[in-house]
Amino acid sequence: xxxxxxxxxxxxxxxxxxxxxxxxxxxxxxxxxxxxxxxxxxxxxxxxxxxxxxxxxxxxxxxxxxxxxxxxxxxxxxxxxxxxxxxxxxxxxxxxxxxxxxxxxxxxxxxxxxxxxxxxxxxxxxxxxxxxxxxxxxxxxxxxxxxxxxxxxxxxxxxxxxxxxxxxxxxxxxxxxxxxxxxxxxxxxxxxxxxxxxxxxxxxxxxxxxxxxxxxxxxxxxxxxxxxxxxxxxxxxxxxxxxxxxxxxxxxxxxxxxxxxxxxxxxxxxxxxxxxxxxxxxxxxxxxxxxxxxxxxxxxxxxxxxxxxxxxxxxxxxxxxxxxxxxxxxxxxxxxxxxxxxxxxxxxxxxxxxxxxxxxxxxxxxxxxxxxxxxxxxxxxxxxxxxxxxxxxxxxxxxxxxxxxxxxxxxxxxxxxxxxxxxxxxxxxxxxx
Length: 433
Description:
Elements: E1 3-5, H1 72-76, H2 84-95, E2 103-105, E3 122-126, E4 130-134, E5 140-147, E6 151-158, E7 164-165, H3 171-174, E8 188-192, E9 198-205, E10 219-220, H4 248-251, H5 272-296, H6 298-301, H7 304-318, H8 335-342, H9 374-377, H10 381-400, H11 406-419, H12 425-431
Antiparallel strand pairs: 1-9, 2-3, 2-10, 3-4, 4-5, 5-6, 6-7, 8-9
Helix pairs in contact: 5-7, 7-10, 11-12
């Protein structure tokens, strides 16, 4: 599946908001074109945006800490470097964002689109709660910080002066239909011309249920085995063509050196596994934010059945329900895979929810590592308990359908019971059986 994007052409103003199937989504042009929620998990195709200005949301308040606010002074002290790549390395180090997470997007889908092209793509790096975007030749580094209470907050940093700002125009595209109507990130799959100009008519917004052959148009993709079809690493010469399917010699590459001057970037990869992890992470972040916002507005705007649907959508995302099966095994010994698995807690048996499978599915265990991050741990206690009840229900549902084994279910329960600080007592009881 995937959400189709349609537009008349180059973006020249705020996008049209989308609330029903028959309306169109304006092209994504905010600072980061990253990743999304939905058709596979959401209860409806598009969501009515919730205004960030709502008093109970406090989106623009500075009192809610996030990964950028907490390091503002330290980031400011990095100014004065004359070398953009050196400045980027320092910023990534301060924010604890791994270089190995590099993903390169070459479609002109950013406020800095004038600098972006297939020869000069935008690099995106991420950890569990932060994303950093860098374009060679620009004086700005773009930052996105996930804040549990307010959702994703977008910043720009002048790496030469250290000045950090929150540009309001980011929400023109990053608080609309593609991100569940709240501030969030999403990954678009966009056919592009040789200059990088998007052909929106044949574009979608992808999620973890999207068939791989429809994903990552406008992105470079490294690490895909032969026969792993996707839309990355290719441009179309015919702007009227649809369903671009590049040949295997483009889909299966080990380095971006064949496309660009890789010396301008932190590494030579645009990691396939990183793209998949980021898709999942952004989906969960957006679903959790939407749930939290509606919970705070519940007295006036949200019905109980709405909340039930939200909890179900989030639970299914957290157990990878309806996730597209891998068409071929992926490399398991890449810098990104090694560093990703080592982050986060392990149980007494050394098991971690961050362990990757990479044979027929992305993760080894049928429960996301995000259950022990701020996105889920900081939910109001009522929502947290209801969510874990729903997760257990969905897992048992999948057990009954033969989609997971009893051993796999027991492993998930045992790990969560040990590493999730506020896991419901029912899970602890099940783990001790």
